[in-house]
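It is worth pausing here to work through a concrete case rather than discussing structure prediction in the abstract. The textbook approach is simple: state the sequence, then state the predicted structure, then interpret. We follow exactly that order.
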Amino acid sequence: MTHRPPRPFRVLAPALAAGVLLTTAACSDGDDSGPDRADTTRVSSSPLAQASPAPLTPAGARAALVTEADLEDDWNQVKNAATWRDSLLVGKVDVADFLTGKADAADCQKLLDRLYGDDLLGKPSGASALTGFEEGASRLLYQVAAYDRAGLDSSFSWLRSLPVKCDQFTATDESGAERTVQVTERSLPEEGDARQGLRVTVRGTSGGEPATLTLDVAAVRVGTDAITLTNGGLDGVDGDSTEQAVKLGTARLKDVQAGRTPSADPGELD
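Step two, the predicted structure:
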């Protein structure tokens, strides 16, 4: 099996980011009268400030998904990604592990449940699409979806809190077997309007043998749309693939939002 050589990342056009900044300025606090009100009116009336991406469609969500060509190494796309479930993520969190009690335990339980259910940011409010890739014993699950903005902001706040709230805890499955879960922050490329990365490690047993599941978990917001991915397996994580998917996946989503067709060649400059 041959390895694909690394490809240069695409250069992203700054127009969308500029529109986001101007729109934010238009929403700044101010009295209903006076200079602040007048300045806000002038900014919000500009064509650039009024421009916003069209709602994500099912076809657009599918077009924004990363492909084999976007990922380095020997990832192969699969057809059954929506059925993937890892039993090591199933378990009831032990509240006794938490000094602050039930609140933090509930957040950690939500993390396990959402990783198992493939809805890291909650249920999408609009179009969504999902794909998956395999490389040896590793899996990369990738999703693009539209969300309610308030819910999306809440989900990102929750993700940012997890390395502190859930740094290490115990979960017990139905048979009484215990798993030790560790959650740390994982840096991501500076892409999108907001981003959060985690490294999740679950130590337990699989098939009666000791096993360690290691996952990169990433979420990137672009407007009210977001990409999420999990990458890893029992043999560890290919971190370069996580970063590649974040960079090129964000570029694809921005292309779709701007009404462009994402390039089939990830080395092509925009």
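Step three, interpretation. The mean pLDDT is 83. The radius of gyration is 20 Å.
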